[in-house]
Structure formats: C-alpha cells, structure tokens
C-alpha cells in the first residue's frame, strides 16, 4: 500500500537489508494497480475454485496510504471477490498513527489488524524508533488500547515481535501478555549465512535463540497458554502430525505472492534479506497472471517439500516440524544458494526437541498420577463462559490423549497378550520412543476410545476386537512415521481399518487377516488366502481402487477430516453416512469452508477452540423430515457428527453447538461438576422429554453458543431474516437464563460445578442486557410458553 515508513527500525528487512528496490518504487499504490490486483486475485480464485483468499495490506507502513486509499483497496477487493469466494482481509501496521477513524473503516470492511511490537519499552526501543531516535512505544500502546476496546476487539489479529536475545525473554513475554492479544508471533531476525544473526559472545553451541524462546515457552505454559503463540503452536501441531501454522516452519508449500506499489509481483518479501533482487519475478499485475507467478522457478523451488531441502535437513530427526526453517534464512552465496540448512539450524533443532520432550513428559507421567494437573480455576472460568482458547482446548486434548494412552495399555493388559497383539505392542513401543508424534496422531483419533471401551466390555468378541484394534493402531502409526514395518493385521467384514488414514476394502468374504508392509511413501496389503491378492497404496503414485482414504481438508488454519470409513464412528445415536462419493465430499468441503469463514468472521471467539480441538466431522444420514441432525458422542473427543444441512450458516451453528458438548464432556472426564447420585429429572426448554442433571447441564452449555449464533445472524441479516433471528436470539437467551437458574437451584452441584454454573450465569446476564424489540420479546415468550405447555401435557 505504501513503500515508505514513519519509523526507522534498524532491523527492517525492507529498508535495511540487501534488497533496496524500494528506492525506485512509487510511495503509494495507484487506483490502476489496486483495480488490476483485485481483478487478478478474482481471476485466480475463479480459475482454481478457491474457497477463501487471504490479503494483507502492508508496507512500509500501510497507514501512511491514508483512509481514502485503504478504503479504495478494501472496496476493490470486496467487489471483485463478491460471489467468487470469501475474503480474509488484514492489515499489518506499526500502529503509531492508528486511531478511531482507521478502526471504523476497518470495522466496515472487517479488516483484521496485526501490530508490530517487540515487548516492553526497553526491548521495543532497541530497534523501533523514529529517525530522530524518539521512542514509538507509547503510541503503539495507545493503538493497541483502542484495539482492545469492546467495539474494536474483534479486529485485533495479534502482535508480531522480532526477537533480540539481548532482551529479557520473560519481560518481553509479560509485557505482550499484559496486552491480551489473541496471538503473538515471535520472529527470528532475518539473517543468512552471509550475514549471520547477532549472537552473544558465550553462545558457544549456537542455540541462544532457542534458549530465549524456550524461556518464553515455559512461562507461556506456566501461565496457562493465555493466547496463541504461532511458533509454539506450529511446533506442537507438527509434532502431533498436524500442519505447520507458519511459513517459517514445516514442509507445506508456499502459497504467497507479494505485489509492490508499482504492481510488480515478488516472492516472499523475507527474501529481501538474501541479496539485491532476490524476491524479483520480472512480472506485474497488468501483464501477468498469478498462474504465471506460480510457475516462476523461485516459487516452484518452494513447492517441493522434503525434496527441496539439503541432504543435512532431509536426514534430520525434526525435519517435519522444522522444514528447513524460513527459506530466506538458508541462503549462502555460491552454488548452494538456498539449498542449505537454516542459519538458525542449531536453534531450531534444540527448540523443537525440547518442546517435544516437555510435551511428552506432560503426557507420560507415572500412572499413579494424573498425566496433566487438574484444570486450574482460570481454565474452568474460561470454559464456563462458553468459550475456550487454543491453549485451554489444547489442554483438554492432551488430557484426552493421556486417557487414550491409558485405555490402550488397559486393553493390552486385558486382551490376553496374544501373539498378534504383542507384535503390535512392540511396534508401538519402538515408535513411541523414536517417532512419538506418529503414535500421538493416531491415538488422538476420536474413535480410539469407542473401540477401547468395546474391547473392555467382556463380550465374546471383545478379545478379537482388542487385538484387531491394537494392530490397526500400530500399522497406522508406522504408516504415519514412514517406517519400514511388516505387521499382520486382523480384519473384519473384509475391511482393513487404518485410523486417521482410511480403510481398504478387501475382496473375498473369508479374508480374516492381511500382512501390511509399510514403506516410506505408502504400503502394500497381502491376503494370506490360497488365492491371495496384493493391494498397493502409494502416496506418490497409484492407489488401489479399493482404498478409501480419509477426506482431509486444510480449511485455512483448521485441518479437519470427514470421517466416513471408521466403523467405530457409529456411536452418535444416528445412522452414520456410508462412504461419500467424491462429489458429496466436495459439497461438504465447500460448505465447511464457508461455514468456517463465517465462524471466523462472525463468531471469532469460537474459532480458536474449534481449531485446536475439532479434528473430524462425521457425516450422518439425513432425516426423513429434512430436519437438521447433529450429535457429539460422550466418548469421542474431537469429533462431531452432522447430517449436511441446507446452508453453510446452518452448518456453522451445528459445529459450534456440538463442539460445546465435546468440550464439556472433556471437562467432566477431569472433575465432577455435580453429584452423580442425583437421579432427578428436570425441564429443558429445548427438549420434549425431562432430562437428568448432566443432560440439562450439557444442553445449557451448548445453548451459550446457540445464543451467540443467533445474535450474529441478527447482526448480519436484514428484513425478515433479521426479525426471525432476533426472535431466536431472544427465546434462547431467556430460556438458557432460566435453565442456568434451574441448575443453580438443583442442590446437586459440587463446588467446581457451582463455579462453572456461575460462569455461565455471568455470560447469560451480559446477553440479557442486549435490547430487543417488543415484537421479538412477545414472539419468544409465546414460543417458550407453547413448549412448556406441550411438555406438561405429556
């Protein structure tokens, strides 16, 4: 948006590093370039059927472009993408001139705001000063204070902090945490092998930046992880088999292009730190398409994943988390170019391995102790409000993973130690030592627990179920680790189940076991019958037509699967949908993408929890009447089951509603909120039948999200839709408030339960203060009275 800046930060890669192309560019982007940019993006989105486009307005300092120019950019992009795909529009600023007028504009176009700040005043002023040496710190804090006001808080995207190891890491963390950002990005300062980073004199092992970040990690963890920290969340995600959340780590291909003020296309602007002209492509928005940019050799080089790394990186034990580090940080002049380890290689190796070790120690505490400490009061209070941050939801997920590990050990103990079961156990033991993230990824699968419970029920098939499941889990974990293993896996009904991967349908009714041979990029399955068959599944080549792979969707920053192959998914009280056809899966993909974009835009307070805790959506068969159907199984943390509704907005409601049940179920695994001996039944305003106390508690908690949903629909709709949404908001707000008081008066709550219900009451009271029309109030009361009358007449 603007190629100059009102600060003179001495660590700025745009102005202070090798590439100086900014000097020859116009200060402000023109109307012509803005229009062409919007048209190119829309063209690309249409061509590739994109669901969402992410655009960041940056600089320089983008606020220097002024409100008129920023409004023009937002309008051009919004108009061009209307009816094409969702637009995630953001701006990154130093915030020294951020004021209400800018924020009103950003609110109008839903532009999320990220702010650069390096910590407390002493830390920030090491680099982020005006040209005359004046501090920028106070003005940045004023801008952040505005973002934290209730009317603007939904626009606050987070804080970007560039590390300087001379700063006290705890002081930096505490200063940033005090500002309550939703996310913090700690960035390694840009450096190359030619221009290495500044290091203390005593940094003999080259890990000063790792030590700095690990001090922050420990403080963040002890603090209850109150906000997302992208580098830590990314490491934890990849260690558990998930995706990276930043281009600085992981093996995901680059999907970024930069458009300068003169309309020229560049690669990632971090390359400016390598050499003059490093990010150039020789293309511009007037002449060239984004497809042409994607074919540029420099971009293609960053699409190759493992194959694009140096030999040292490819053999590194943490390569899937590190990914070689940021591409620009690999540069060394000469023939190797960017095919080198990161200049921060030692730091990244130590950071990732020590986070892995801390994370594993959390999950493998002695069996006579809980694997995690009980939920702290601040965790319980946060969840009681109806929400749940990334950190708190991740804590619930780690408790569930520890529970799954305990169940697996118990299944092994109770299953009779058969030869096949013991072989699977030995494989898992080795993998848990050498590739623990692969085991965790499989054990975190939502339907491991239903399998384990069935295996422990003692029915005639329990032992066979136990052995089959352990072998399936071992094979799936080995496959995820890419380890050369050979395992005999029992099958049932001609289906080889590999949790988190999919299922293989085998020919022949008499096949009862297969030999699974795993290699680095897939597996073969060989039946042992006289007329045996071999099935080959390769991630890089052909897959057997009998293979039914999991449908994995990377919805922006939320990786989620459609689970339509696991036989244990049929635990939701409604018939599970059989294997989806490809067009059905694509319809789900489109609806989930739009529903997630709607949640992020209109219910952003629910997005962190969903992102951290919801791994699978299980399709259900539609109802004969066309009514929406959804469910959350008490023993399937991380999954919700839904019959695909008519609209993405309805899907958004079902997602946030059912995930409330998922969270509360995990809380109830950790502590008693009520006396389990209470056998009374209670009126629930949303059910035709009387409910036990847990049922009322679950329904009340879920309806906190329902109220927020209808409040958002009321805000974003017009005409009759807005009136209908207001009635729904009013009804469920008032009746949820009534249900909270029923819970409070039950006399069966534990002290923790009383605290939890008090938190729900506080949330509902805040909603009761919202004004509604007399018409909506009358209609809501009429519907409530009719429901209660029908309930009494039963």
From TrEMBL:
Residues 1-225 form the Radical SAM core domain. This is Radical SAM core domain-containing protein. Keywords: Iron, Iron-sulfur, Metal-binding, S-adenosyl-L-methionine. InterPro entries: AKG_HExxH, Aldolase_TIM, rSAM, rSAM_sf, rSAM_SPASM_FxsB, Sulphatase_maturase_rSAM. Coiled coil: none annotated. CDD domains: Radical_SAM. The lineage of its organism: Bacteria, Bacillati, Actinomycetota, Actinomycetes, Kitasatosporales.
């Amino acid at each position: 948006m603007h190629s100059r800046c009102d600060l003179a930060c001495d660590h700025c890669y745009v102005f202070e590093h090798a590439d100086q192309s900014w000097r020859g560019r116009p200060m402000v982007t023109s109307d012509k370039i803005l229009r062409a940019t919007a048209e190119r993006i829309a063209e690309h989105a249409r061509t590739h059927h994109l669901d969402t486009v992410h655009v960041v307005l940056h600089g320089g300092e983008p606020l220097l472009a002024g409100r008129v120019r920023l409004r023009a950019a937002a309008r051009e992009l919004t108009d061009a993408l209307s009816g094409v795909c969702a637009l995630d529009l953001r701006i990154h600023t130093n915030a020294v001139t951020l004021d209400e007028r800018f924020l009103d504009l950003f609110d109008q176009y839903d532009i999320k705001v990220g702010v650069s700040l390096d910590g407390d005043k002493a830390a920030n002023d090491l680099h982020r000063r005006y040209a005359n040496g004046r501090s920028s710190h106070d003005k940045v804090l004023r801008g952040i204070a505005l973002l934290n006001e209730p009317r603007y808080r939904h626009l606050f995207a987070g804080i970007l902090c560039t590390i300087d190891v001379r700063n006290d890491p705890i002081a930096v963390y505490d200063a940033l945490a005090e500002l309550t950002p939703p996310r913090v990005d700690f960035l390694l300062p840009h450096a190359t092998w030619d221009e290495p980073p500044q290091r203390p004199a005593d940094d003999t092992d080259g890990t000063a930046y790792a030590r700095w970040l690990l001090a922050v990690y420990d403080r963040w963890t002890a603090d209850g992880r109150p906000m997302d920290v992208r580098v830590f969340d990314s490491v934890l995600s990849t260690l558990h088999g998930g995706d990276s959340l930043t281009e600085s780590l992981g093996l995901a291909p680059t999907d970024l292009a930069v458009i300068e003020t003169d309309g020229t296309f560049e690669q990632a602007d971090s390359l400016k730190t390598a050499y003059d002209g490093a990010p150039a492509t020789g293309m511009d928005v007037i002449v060239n398409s984004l497809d042409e940019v994607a074919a540029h050799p420099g971009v293609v080089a960053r699409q190759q994943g493992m194959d694009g790394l140096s030999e040292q990186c490819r053999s590194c034990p943490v390569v899937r988390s590190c990914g070689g580090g940021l591409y620009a940080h690999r540069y060394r002049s000469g023939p190797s170019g960017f095919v080198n380890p990161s200049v921060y290689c030692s730091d990244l190796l130590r950071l990732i391995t020590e986070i892995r070790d801390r994370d594993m120690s959390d999950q493998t505490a002695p069996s006579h102790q809980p694997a995690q400490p009980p939920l702290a009061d601040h965790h319980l209070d946060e969840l009681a409000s109806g929400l749940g941050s990334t950190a708190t939801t991740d804590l619930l997920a780690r408790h569930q993973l520890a529970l799954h590990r305990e169940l697996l050990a118990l299944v092994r103990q109770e299953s009779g130690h058969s030869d096949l079961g013991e072989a699977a156990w030995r494989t898992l033991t080795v993998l848990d030592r050498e590739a623990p993230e692969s085991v965790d990824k499989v054990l975190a699968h939502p339907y491991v627990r239903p399998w384990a419970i069935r295996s422990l029920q003692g029915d005639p098939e329990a032992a066979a179920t136990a052995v089959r499941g352990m072998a399936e889990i071992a094979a799936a974990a080995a496959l995820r680790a890419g380890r050369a293993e050979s395992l005999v896996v029992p099958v049932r009904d001609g289906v080889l189940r590999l949790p988190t991967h999919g299922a293989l349908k085998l020919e022949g009714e008499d096949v009862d076991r297969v030999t699974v041979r795993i290699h680095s990029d897939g597996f073969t399955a060989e039946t042992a019958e006289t007329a045996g068959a071999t099935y080959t599944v390769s991630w890089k080549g052909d897959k057997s037509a009998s293979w039914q792979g999991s449908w994995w969707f990377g919805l922006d920053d939320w990786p989620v699967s459609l689970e339509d192959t696991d036989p244990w998914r049929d635990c939701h009280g409604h018939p599970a949908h059989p294997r989806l056809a490809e067009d059905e899966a694509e319809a789900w993909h489109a609806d989930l993408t739009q529903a997630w974009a709607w949640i992020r835009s209109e219910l952003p307070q629910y997005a962190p929890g969903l992102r951290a805790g919801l791994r699978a959506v299980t399709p259900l068969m539609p109802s004969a009447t066309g009514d929406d159907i959804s469910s959350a199984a008490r023993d399937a943390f991380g999954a919700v089951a839904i019959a695909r509704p008519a609209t993405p907005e309805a899907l958004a409601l079902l997602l946030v509603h059912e995930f409330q049940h998922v969270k509360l179920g995990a809380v109830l695994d950790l502590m008693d909120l009520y006396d389990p001996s209470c056998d009374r039944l209670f009126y629930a305003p949303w059910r035709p039948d009387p409910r036990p106390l847990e049922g009322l508690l679950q329904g009340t908690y879920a309806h906190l999200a329902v109220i927020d949903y209808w409040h958002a629909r009321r805000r974003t709709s017009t005409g009759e839709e807005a009136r209908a949404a207001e009635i729904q908001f009013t009804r469920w707000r008032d009746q949820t408030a009534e249900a909270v008081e029923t819970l409070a008066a039950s006399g069966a709550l534990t002290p923790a339960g009383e605290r939890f219900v008090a938190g729900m009451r506080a949330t509902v009271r805040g909603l009761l203060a919202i004004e509604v029309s007399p018409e909506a109030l009358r209609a809501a009361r009429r519907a409530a009275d009719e429901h209660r009358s029908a309930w009494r007449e039963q």
